[in-house]
Structures are given as C-alpha cells and as structure tokens.
Amino acid sequence: MRRSLLIPALVAAAVFVTACGDDGGDPVLDTSPDPTSAPTSPETSPATDAPDDGDDVSAAAACAAEAGTFTDGVLTIATGEFAFPPYVLDDAPESKQGFEAAVAYAVAGQLGFADDQVTWVRTGFDEVIAPGEKEFDFNLQQYTITPERANVVDFSEGYYSAAQAVLGYTDSPAAGATSVADLKGLKIGVQASTTSLNYIEDVIQPDDDPLVYNDNAAAKAALDAGQIDAIVADLPTALYITAVEIENTTVFGQIEGSGTDEFGLLLAKDNPLTECLDLALQALKADGTLDAITEEWMAEYAEAPLISAS
Amino acid sequence: MGGVAELTRRQQYDQRQRRRSIAAAAASSVVAVVALVVLVPRLSGWESVRSSFFDGDVLATTFPKLLRAFLLDLKILAWTAPAVLVLSVLVALARGARSPVLFPLRAVGVVFTDVFRGVPTILVITLIGFGVPAAFGLRRPWNDPVLWGSVALTLSYAAYVAEIIRSGIEGVHESQRAAARSIGMTSGQTMRSIVLPQAFRSTVPPMMNSFVSLQKDVALVSVLGPVEVLRRAEIEQSRFFNFTPYVGAAIIFLSLTIPLTRLADYLLARQQRRTGGTQIT
User: Fold this and answer.
1) Given B48, B131, B240, which is nearest A131 (Cβ)?
2) Contacts of residue B152 in chain A, CB cutoff 8 Å?
3) Angle at B220 between CA B218 and CA B226, to 5 degrees
4) Is residue A276 part of a domain?
C-alpha cells in the first residue's frame, strides 16, 4: 500500500518542485543550495526517480537514505501539543512560519525530503521519555540538551542556545535587578519540566525554594496573588509570556552567561538518523542558513538587558 | 468443654480444615511469586521498562531529594488532619442541629458539604490557593501557598469527614439520648458525653480511610507551586528523562499508607469484635 502511494507522491513532488523551481519566494529556504530539488527516499535512488542533479545530494541526504525513516519516503517530525511563537506561528508548523518550523523544513531539505514529504505529529513534552517505539523521526520543542537526558534519548547538535531571563510585573522588586545577587532574596516562580528550574536551583540559589507551576497560567495566578516576585524562563519564552500571555509584564533582563544550554532535535535512543541530523545542521550552519533563520525569527528574542552573573 | 489433651471430633475437623487452607494459600502464593520472577523479565519490553522505571543510579541520586520534599507533605498533613477533624465535627453538629431556630445553621452545614464535596479537590485548592490571597490583597506571609493550600484541603476533606461523623451520630440509638435526658442531662451534655463518644468509636475505621486518602491528596497542593514529593519527582524525572523518581515517590507514599491501612483494618476488626456480640469459634 505504502509502496504504491510512494510513486505518485514522488511524481507530484517532482512536478511541484519543477513548477516553483525559480520561484524562490521562501526566504528561509532560498539561502540553502536548493535542497528541495532532489527528493529522495530510502527506496528510490535520486539518480533514477528524482530530477537529475545528483551532485546536489548532500551528505546528510545520503546518510538519511541509508538510515531510513519511521515511514518510508516520509519524514515524520514531532512538535508540542500546542506549538507557540516564536517557535511555531499559529500552532501550524506546516506553514513553515516560526523558528522551529523553519529549522525543521531546512533540516528536512538537507536530508533530501521535499516539503510535502514532511508530516507533523504532536507529542507532549514528557511523552518522549516513555520507553518503546517513538512515532516520529525527530521531535523539536525546545528540548535542552543535557547529559542526563542524553542517556535516554538521542540529541542532534544544538540549533539554538537560549539565555535564561527574568520577567515580572513592572512594579516587581525584581525590576531593578542588575545581578544574580539581587535575585537571591526574591520569591521566584518557574514552569515545571524546564531547565530553567535547574538553573535557578544550581546557579541563582534563592533563599526561598522556587515555586514550580504546571503552566504559565498558574504562574500568572501566583504573580497576581503576590506569591512570587518574578518568573524565570528562557529568553524567547519569557518574551512570549510578556507579549502574549501575561499583560503588564516585562522582561527585566537576561542572565549573563546563562545561554549555554542548547536546544537539540530529539530522537529515539540509538536512532541511526541522529548523525544525519548532525550533518544536516552542520551544513545549515556552514552555509549561513541557520543564521538567517535565527535572524529572521529570533532577532528580537536575543535582546534584553544583561543581568550580571555574580 | 473438651479436655486440653483431647480434641473433639469437631475441633479435629476444624484443625484439618485450617491446615488445608494454609497449605493452599502458601502453594498458590509460591506459584504466583515464581510466575512473577520467572515470567516478567521475559517480557520483550522488560529491559527498557527496567531501565526507565527502576534505574538504581537514578534512584540513589534522587531519593534523598524526594525524602526532603516529603517533609513538606508531612508538615501539611500534620496541621491539616487535626483541622479536618475539628471542622468536620462542627459541620456534622451543625447539620444535626434539631432546634427549629437553628435552621440557618443546618442550611450552612448542608451547603458546605454539598459545595466542598461536589467540587474536585484540585479545583478547590486552585481557587482558594490563588484566589483568596489575590481577592483580599494579602501580603506575605499571609498569602503563602502552603497555608492556603492547607486551608483548601481542610475544607474539602472536612466535607467528607463531616458526613462520616454525621452517620456515626445518627447511628447512636435514640434511646441513648432519651436515657441521658431522663437523668437530667442537657442536650449539649448529651451530645458531648453520650452521643459523640459512641459516634466516634464507630467511625474511626472510615475516618482512617479518609486520613490515608488525605495523605495522598496533600500532593495536590503542588499545583500552587510548593515543591512537595510528587513535584520533586516530576522535576527529577524531567532532569533525567527517567521515570524512576516517580517509583521512588510511590515507595515513600506506600511506606506511610500501608501501615496506616493495616491500622485501619485492625481498628475495624477490633470494632467488629466489640460490637458483634459473642464470638463464634
């Protein structure tokens, strides 16, 4: 069944690619060496089925053809149950709008998958930890790479590094903070399951234990109840919270030197595709594509006053 | 009856039956244990289940943190349980008030139990824990989430326990009251000295049940932010991408609930012995 659907799909892909070959309308992809022009799959050699420019097949694509994917000829990418800006706009990763959506399609292109050979699935953040088969090739929803997590799942190279940021209502005692020392005496809230919590416990070490919430709505309620002075989150999330989720809040600053945590693409443990993703990301870094994507979506998310680490 | 040395035929028969049932229980237990030990590791997914749920290293690293977090659970339990008892007695008395003048009090009791028994505990905790401090503009330390989480837990559980106590009060035979009143006790004295002591005795086992349940529901206070054992387990789970901390938390809970449950069983059995008339042997 799958096999018989594959050929028409490839034909359709080839027609589609030819049709918009010189369109170049997508700013995300047009800096890369036209990755969509050589749709390949593990079962079909690019030389016979795809448009004949075999030179374009990247190392990552060859690697992916070797490694195979969850569903043959299709790259299954997972993201959050609710994907939010700036990572995915309008909860619609298919639109390529948003940082992680753009990264995903750029990586897919490097692996030799045309846009229409990408399917999206949704998973909860913690779901991926459960043992057993993963129903996706890779998952991206701001998974921070940590050595402990790497024992259980595979991570690609990092595709973004986010600083930790402090936010709160404009009249918060955290508003004037210029160093981490200023934060120690405050009540700090944080969302569960994030590495921000590890950062608070390991680096800020506030006098009172941080309060931990299921979601930002609960953190907002705690801000309103005066139970916390500030929230710590990674900078893009912090800016999203202040812009969209909680009114009258502002990002007081990003903590100096806290941008060492990198987001990585997450795969099932020992998935052979991991090294292909590394190759793809290396290529995207080398030719400036990743920088362009980061600039396009995250530029405003990199600027906030610095809070010194000491 | 029969001498010490010589058993009656009935007693011999009973003894044989007893031995037979002990042997049967032992044999079936052995079979069950052997089946578990031999078969479970043969399940195809066992290795991955073992490493993600029963990782010794992760347990060793996280267990001390879990224990420390459990202190908060115990702290909340320590003041919530007595508060529940006091409040539930008051509510039960309010509902049982018989004078027509006290109708408003009865109504309050009914509304209280209806509301707090009908709304899920987690909702009560969220609404009160965030809502009360925000609504009244309370400042530290009076807006503390642990404080208001405990209050919410108390209200929720008092509604259940009040019903248990009320059933205990109503279970005391009317003749007890009549007898007390006839020797000149006031209705207050009757309640205090005659009805409540008997009501309590009959409701201890179900109240123990509620206590066990309360001990587990203390974890719900974590929705307000305090890091108690369940939240700590979640945090460590997310740090290690491993479920073993949850198993650690379960072990901690069990180490408290199992003895409590056995105690409840014992109390129930003792009460049945006391009230069940002469023992049949």
Assistant:
1) B48
2) none
3) 90
4) yes
